[in-house]
Amino acid sequence: MKSAFSETATVQTKTQDEKRHVLPVSKATVGLALRTLFLSPAAFIMLSFFFVPLLIVFAYSLLSRGPYGGVMLPWTVESYVRIFDPLYLVILWRSVWIAAVSTAFCLILAFPLALYIARAGSRKTLMLNLVMLPFWTSFLIRTYAWMFLLRDTGLINTVLEALHVIHDPLPLLFNTGAVILGLIYGYLPFMVLPLYATLEKLDPALLDAAADLGASPAVAIWRVVVPISRPGMIAGCLLVFIPCLGAYLTPDLMGGGKTVMIGNLVQNQFTTARDWPFGAAISLLLMAMVLLVMRALGDRGEELL
Amino acid sequence: MQTVLELKALSKHFPTHKAVDGVSFSVARGEFFSLVGPSGCGKTTTLRLIAGFEEPSSGQLLLDGHSVEGLPAYRRDVSTVFQNYALFPHLTVAQNVAFGLERRGQISNSLIADKVAQALALVHLSGKEARLPNQISGGERQRVALARSLVLEPKILLLDEPLSALDAKLRKEMRLELKNLQRRIGIAFLFVTHDQEEALSLSDRVAIMHRGLLEQVGTPQEVYRSPKTRFVAEFLGDVNWLGAAGVRPEAVRVSRTAPHDSRSTAAVVESQTFLGNCIHLNAKLENGSPCVAEMPQHQCDFSAGERIFLWWHAADEFRVAGEAAA
Questions:
Q1: Is pTM beyond 0.90 here?
Q2: Which residues, other chains included, contact A36 with Cβ-Cβ below 8 Å and sequence gap of 6+?
Q3: What is the pLDDT of residue B86?
Q4: Residue A208 located in a structural domain
Q5: Looking at the domain assignment, is residue A67 inside a domain?
Q6: Strand pairing partners for B192?
Q7: Residues of A192-219 as b/e, b for ≥16 C-beta within 10 angstroms?
Q8: A131 lies in the same domain as A276
Q9: ipTM of the predicted structure?
Q10: How many domains does chain A have?
């Protein structure tokens, strides 16, 4: 009786042990297989359509220019040296400040709007939809619409002339101001949405508390709302500054080719200038600049989060 | 006693209901005054009207004898401790406490630092100056909120259910501490709560609100022992309604023989409820209405179905408005 009991016990222990050892291994194997199955398409796409092309661009940037476009040997760093030509440094600098000014304007315009929407109660959804409404039409069409408004024979100049406010059309289009206007218009929603996301979470009692402690509404916003919504501001600034820095369409159309930014320079090198190595070098420089900005802002953002 | 805060027929009407309806009371300097009532009775709205977060529909609000009409919250010499403390999450404990002082201007940084240190010492938070609100416990957050308001030496401190976010044990500790603190600093407290025990145990005077109306104001003893309305009587504790009179369970005595020279009624024992520190004897009167007697455990040797007499002193019964005499 006693021995039979102990035998059963041993058997049970064995089965348990088997389960403990065998099952997790097979589970892990299945898990690995599934993970591989689901991750490989994305990994394949990233590898073949992002990483490999990037390597090609890098290789091109170190080669010499072909006579009719394309690249040829020998290897050289000449393209990178050329970036420091004042001619191109001006374009780089212009891109940075246009993107910075556009981002700053977006922040100033978006903050009150986002705050208002966040405190709008039941009308929040409607207002958010209105912010996103422009995305329903193509950016190209909207840019052309701006051109129809701003050009010499456009709506604004025509009306002002008809009202005899002006005699000659105002130079509203084909200048840096028009480019900045176009960028602000295009990227404002990208500032509003992350700002809204942080402001929406802000406890309204904090504003009561600030007022209670003697802070006027302006001081309460500056000392309480602004610092707390900093993560949203940083996210918004990244989302606006990065595409503005590499903007191509807006400076091309609204700048009329006069306000050249990095994006236009890259495009130009691969088409009319037929200097692929230089175009590749500038592309990589643009990427490096974006990474730098992300590091600088991103780190500070995490600190505060 | 000098009045620090006075409400004269103060009302706040929202489109759907009257949140506060003609409320009048005054708070004396150094007084611990509680505003108590069930949720939705208008007590928090009253507090917000005093703080200046809401504009009254009608009535007057006097602070130190002067009307505060049209004065925005940030110019009123009152301070609020919020239900969830509303500490600024991006500022340290010390910066939170300094926030109000910095808004005043004309105070040197060293004086601000001194006052902040004093205020934090007062609430036993010295050493936690550099912590952020999410790095301290709920009880400590509560103390920061207190220090942040007290450092401004307001004419009156408004407390909106300040203990409700704490767990039961901590709540009792903080209750005692709050009372001691108030005694020590001598600032008038207007304490809003839905917890009648909190209100009765802490206050010099209690005001009971119900559906926007002020039902009764008085010392804890007055409102508990002589409630003027049925609502007040039942909100503050258990009541046996014996004809037109109300008697608290702890005032009801039980005997086997008919007592002389006191109010009494015959009854039958129904059941007993053990409550730890005492026993509730549930009895039924001859007219069928129930009556509860609270008694010490060792005195309770009655069994279900037994015929008994319930009696009480005339001084322990109260009559409320609207109850017809039987």
A1: no
A2: none
A3: 93
A4: yes
A5: no
A6: B35, B160
A7: bbbbbbbbbebeebbbbbbbbbbbeeeb
A8: yes
A9: 0.84
A10: 2
Beta bridge partners of B32: B189
Q: Which CATH class is domain B3-230?
A: alpha beta
Name residue, tokens 């807006």: A250
CATH code, residues B238-319: 2.40.50.140
Chain B interface test: which of A202, A213, A225, A228 (most B C-beta within 10 Å): A213
- Residue A141 in domain: yes
Distance, in Å, from the CA atom of A276 to the CA atom of A60, rounded to the nearest integer, reads 7
Pick from A222, A203, A213: nearest CA to B144: A213
Q: What are the residue boundaries of the structural domains of chain B, listed by start?
A: 3-230, 238-319
Candidates B51, B88, B103; nearest CB to A206: B88
| Chain A neighbors of B148, CB-CB under 8 A | 213
Query: The domain containing residue A16 runs over which residues?
Result: 2-46
Peptide bond into B296 cis (omega under 30): no
Give the separation between CA B9 and CA B121, rounded to whole angstroms.
40
The first and second tokens of residue A185, run together, are: 């218009």
The pLDDT tens digits for A181-199 are 999 999 999 999 999 999 9
Q: How far is A203 from chain B (nearest CA, A)?
A: 8
The span from the CA of B115 to the CA of B134, in Å, is 23
Separation of alpha carbons A166 and A158, rounded Å: 10
Is A171 in the same domain as A227? yes
CATH number at residue A180: 1.10.3720.10
Which tens digits make up the pLDDT trace of B273-301? Answer: 888 888 899 999 888 889 999 988 877 77
Is the pLDDT at A299 greater than 60? The verdict is yes
What does DSSP assign to residue B249? G
In degrees, rounded to 5, the angle at the alpha carbon of residue A199 between the alpha carbons of residues A194 and A202 is 140
